[in-house]
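Reposting from the mailing list since nobody answered there.

I have sequence plus structure tokens for a pair of proteins and want to know whether others read the tokens the same way I do. The first protein:
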Amino acid sequence: MAADQEETPLTMGSKLSTILIHKPELTQQLALCLDREMQLIPNWKHLARKMFVDEDGIKRLEQHSDYSPTIRLFDLLQVTQPDLTIQTLRKELSEIGRNDLCLLTTEGNYFK
């Protein structure tokens, strides 16, 4: 990792786009948890709906099975909601019942 990336202070108010660039390990962890479709456990589709992605958009995101739909969702959100912060993402994850992922973003030493 480049020195300038290590020195970038990230907070809960940091934009999602900044997090995706400077903390790819967090992105991967979220994708591992949200990509799985399991009964009774909300996944990336639930988050997408919560973030106002329509059903056609969700279908487009799931078309390429060789790439993480969660990461594609985050890429889409960078464009459609450029001011989206990690704090807002945590709130939405909590509202779909994924407190485990809220905890991951809090306890993963990703933010100051």
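The second protein, same order (residues first, tokens after):
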Amino acid sequence: MALLRSGIWVDFEEWPKAGPLPPIRTATKADAKVDWVVYRKLLTEQTTPEQIENLGQSLPFYKRPFVTAYTTSPYLDLTQPLNCKKSAIAHIYRTERKLTREVGAPVLREFNTPEERAEWFEWYVAFQRVQNRISDEQYEILKKWTQDGEKPEWMHLTGLMVNDVPLAMGLFYYSDGVFYYFSSTMSPDPQYRKYGPGKLFVEKLIQQTITRGGRTFDFLQGEHNYKAHWNPTNRVLYQCIYPHSPKGLIALMLFKLKKMLRKDNVLTTPLEAPAQQDPTPAFENIQSGLG
């Protein structure tokens, strides 16, 4: 699943055993130029200090990567009591009661049949397009994963519904007791959005995973503050930024200089990582396009 934590998606025919095929670009119009300037990737969680030290040693100096910390959202160990922010969880359940009173009871609904997937995937895409969070290429690969691939059932398409109206929708994986929170989006309709259904959606997904015997809830990529409501402890992964051109090298050098002027720690090995690090990734505009 480390592939899903990088800024680039990789298409594959069989998940999770198959090897990666060529990367799929996910740049939107706002950041398309970044692809030929630098390339950012997250290292796997098993990367050792020695491996980081050896990164790029065989490359010329001007092509060597810059390694820095990248804080991602935590795993939730569902076999243990969750370290939730009590006030936030209480607010979520107050929201559910208010929504039930004023509109109707919110329930999770999974879309499993080919017909349901075809219909409700377009709702998911429509919600993302309103927020300019999905490109045409992303649409094609997600359509393949949810409908046209060999095993579309690996990708769960789920909605938070009230009276058969979607308030929030998401794409998720579940494998070997681990729930992977891949992507979600909310309805742009103000009459539903005012209730803030996103957090309620997450809470219901967590409780459903527990009910089904899941052991782990993995938020995957992203520095979204709301995820700390369920666990304030972040993991630290490391990212490499490779220059792809002279412009990329200049941009990378300026980034290093900015870090030095701010007196931030420039990390070269995991051993130098502080307990908590600025969660904002380098070159913020290099994003996957989905949260």
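Reply #1 (J.P.):
I read it the same way you do. The chain has seven helices and eleven strands.
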